[in-house]
Specification:
281 residues; four-stranded antiparallel sheet; Neuraminidase; mainly beta; 52% strand
Length: 281
């Protein structure tokens, strides 16, 4: 059963994407538009931060990118990232913007095309995973920035580390617990790797070919989101992780929770019909 986090969270905006931040808040990317047109620029967005009983909304106006990912730095500034890059023919246009809490643009830089997920740790390192087009390249005569599949950047977008020791064709999911622990799952080896201080400390072969969008560890097990609203439990044995059961989230009345799911570190948020639920594993 999930704990009730907030009663009756209602927004007149449309949810676009979201994730859990390093300090356990739920961050939502919201917009007044019902449908998104990635060809449009200078749109207005709202970043909503929900933690315990507090809701903080930050209005961002005339944003030059369509943010598919967002996270927050330790100083409260917000990183918006557009997963795909546009090009003027010779160079890729910047697809990352940093805003302060008043909605003022502070910086912009390039994080590359084909971005799958973005998470920031407590040292303000930006961890970026890439899908196949970001790894192998979608533009002729341009070396893909995300060729290694998983890259760490400084706060201003300078590359500080990349996954040179892995033949990543698609980094399906990651869980940045802290600057000391980063977990990622990739194809085509179907492996889940744990890094401590950028060094591999564990590697598991994941049996089965279920899609993995998000994951967290639950003691000795692995909880995996396999699609927008469904989860599975995987058992860990030696260096292998095997699917064992479908997980059904239920509310305080014993009814199934079937809304969007968010997972990171050891936290899980889920939207019910009219409530937001939270559980720490």
């Amino acid at each position: 059963m999930l704990d009730k986090c907030m009663n009756n969270y209602i927004s007149n905006l449309n949810w676009f994407n979201g994730q859990i931040t390093r300090d356990g808040a739920l961050l939502l990317i919201e917009t007044p538009r019902k449908e998104q047109d990635f060809s449009l620029t200078n749109q207005n967005w709202t970043i909503t931060l929900i933690k315990d009983s507090t809701v903080n909304k930050i209005e961002l106006k005339n944003v030059s990118i369509t943010p598919t990912e967002a996270d927050i730095f330790s100083d409260g500034t917000i990183l918006l990232v557009q997963g795909r890059c546009s090009t003027d023919g010779d160079t890729l246009e910047q697809n990352a913007c940093r805003y302060d809490a008043t909605g003022q643009l502070k910086d912009s830089f390039l994080l590359g095309d084909g971005i799958s997920q973005v998470q920031i740790d407590e040292m303000d390192t930006i961890w970026v995973s890439y899908f196949d087009e970001g790894i192998f390249g979608a533009f002729e005569n341009m070396e893909p920035i995300g060729a290694k599949g998983l890259v760490a950047y400084s706060k201003n977008g300078q590359k500080v580390w990349e996954a040179n020791d892995y033949d990543i064709a698609d980094c399906y999911a990651m869980n940045v617990v802290s600057s000391k622990e980063v977990n990622f799952y990739y194809y085509d080896s179907y492996k889940l790797v744990q890094l401590k201080d950028y060094i591999e400390t564990a590697s598991y072969m994941v049996e089965g070919e279920d899609p993995v969008d998000q994951f967290i560890f639950d003691q000795e097990d692995l909880l995996v989101q396999v699609d927008s609203y469904n989860m599975k439990r995987y058992k860990k044995s030696n260096q292998t992780i095997t699917s064992s059961a479908i997980v059904t989230l239920i509310d305080e009345k014993g009814k199934r929770i079937s809304g969007p799911i968010f997972m990171r570190v050891k936290l899980l948020y889920a939207f019910g019909k009219d409530r937001l639920y939270k559980k720490e594993y």
